[in-house]
Write the structure tokens for this entry.
Amino acid sequence: MPDQYTTPPKPSLLNPNSPLERLSVDLSLDALGSRLDIDGLLAFQRAANYLAAAQIFLQSNVLLEKGFSQDDIKPRLLGHWGTCAGLNLTYAHASALITRHAEDGDDAQFIYVTGPGHGAPAVLAALYIEGSITRFYSQYTLDRIGLEKFVKSFSWPGGFPSHVNAETPGAIHEGGELGYALAVAYGSVMDKPNLVAIAVIGDGESESGPTAGSWHAGAVLPILHLKYISERTIPGTMDDLELLCLFTGYGYQVRFVEYGELPNTEDQAKRKELELNKSMGVSMEWAYGEIRKIQKAARTGNPIVKPRWPIIILRTPKGMTGPRFLGDKQVVGSFRSHQVPLPLAKTDTSQFEDLQRWLASYNFQDLLVRAPTSAHNEGADPEAFFSKEVVRILPKRVERRMGMIKETYAGYEPLDVPDFKDYVNESGKDASPMKTLGEYLVDVVKRNPTTFRIFSPDELGSNKLDAVFSVTNRQFQWDPETANIGGRVVEVLSEHILQGFVQGYTLTGRTALFPSYEAFLGIVTTMVQQYAKFNKVAVETKWRSDVPSLNYIETSTFSLLTLPHHMVRVYLPPDAATTVCVMAHCLRSKNYVNLVIGSKAETSAYLSIEETERHCVAGATIWKRYSTDEGRNPDVALVGIGVETTAEVIAAAALLRKEGVRVRVINVIDLMILGEYGTHPHALSNESFNGLFGTDTPVVINYHGYPANVKSLLFARDHPISRKRFEVLGYIEQGTTTTPWSMLRMNQAGRFDVAERAIALISTAQPNGLIAAKGNELRAWYMHQNHDMRAVHEKYALEHGVDSPDLKSGAVLHEA
């Protein structure tokens, strides 16, 4: 067994005599004096570190009383120890900071966002000590019985998972996919002037692209946690000068809090822990003071154009306070402390004895109230269970403790949404869905000056939503000539960052709209999936209230069908009126991920205003005016899903009716109605499905997207659907930048393609009918027309840059 630690060498480009070498360490404690309460900070961390380790290992005998044995160890050891002590250090200092300023009359509100979501044992431990776990989960009382239940529940069936999620009080970020904590923290404080977010960013997470792009926003205190470890991270190999230059360039003021070399003795370890906490306490006080200074300047009409927000760079050994060695292998300060430091504690006697010594080193029982607590505690008061040294750093107002901040679980603020009817045209009038929606959003912005924002990667103009700039601006502060602190549009050329902003903004109660394009929204697909998982659990967690839906709008194809079906809503409104009606619904909805796929081009209004509202509520209806005999007894059903695809369906219906084909035209606006009944709240019952599509009628579906999306919904239905009677047309990855009709034709989804496939299906279904008799003639004619129109209209498009007016839906309507 070696008798000392080894610390990985820290590279240095600095002159040892440089004043930067100890930047921010030589801070005076005079301003805080005894108010720093070092003893209270250390006691809280001891208790939290013990509880974090106990959650990983113990299923019983949490107080290590007589008879402690390997039977008390969990059969499956899950969790990550390496980051726990650092998280408990920052949580303790944040709590003490809130308490100090509350005593001065400053009603400080903090939320705590952790990038290392796998550090849940630490977060849960701190929440249990402050009483938040007991408040939301009454079975985990603050007494011996509740303590046993709480510790056992970690990574135990029916208990808390091994990572921070929606079941964790105070959490607004799951951390299942690293890289987004900082952006989420920034989004959470937008329009919340009294809220400050502390974001702990792990060194591994800091290597991700999304984090690298997120260092530029607002009232957030980032703590970059660099851990001494033999397998180094990129920032972990940087010396202070490199880190100082990097983050100064990002616009921050930098302070370093460092543990230093690993100690050789227990006394040295205690002294280092003391100095670490002094440095951390002063640095936290400095950081909060800088944030308030910047905010005060802005709120008194003298904003700092380029404010330098604070950042703390924290260096501690990985697995700090844990077992020093495993056999002759170093644990603290090495990769061995990352997850479970003593993985064989249940079966290996030597590791069990190491665990026993480790847990005993915290003297946890000394941190509890000695007298029996059941008579006067009722399991709900931390001060009746933990000693006063442990809990005195906690905010006295329990609603200011970070696990109980209302914004993190009950902050929903409904929008004042205008009536869509005031913004749309009557049937037959042309309008651009996106332009009309932009005009609608003007009033949404005006009515909701602090609860609605648009987040877009520089695409409002190209998506024709730029009418909002008549009442607001882009939010940007760094340019003295264009500085605008109050703008409601946030534009950043990074979908990852915007998605993080949107999640933080939404999960703290406000409503966001995210316009983009297919190719770009795909970048954040996995983030949306993680969000949907978080929100799914949140909806199932009784103490969490609703949150606004997360709303996307785009003008090309995209699919969210891989998300949990009951969480996602996908709408494809066919015209301007239905687009605004759907958006009005989405902005009022809660707990969903809404995707609206629209169009920038002008299109006719197909329905009256009353019909529009009924159509949007139903999700799909028969369009009688474009059908034969209002859709009765059809030879074929033509289904449009999307703007241009619906226009082509109506044009195809007109072609077929001329030939005596009985046509039923259907429009689907809510894609999820097609799925299996019971798998989605909007899915049609079998009776309703048959009422729309018949039981033996051939059906041609023209979809603004990939046909596989519709097929996956249709053919999963629980009653038999003959694949032979359903044909789904859509995008098959043909074509590039071109006009809408040319794109449809190249993807075999134009009007003649729809008509040709309809004749083919009718001929198969009615081989002895009149249509079948001339089926070959009609199919050949439609293919010929398709070829001829291709030449004529491609020439027009090449000369004019747009489709021929003959192809517009308005011309089709008159013909129909």
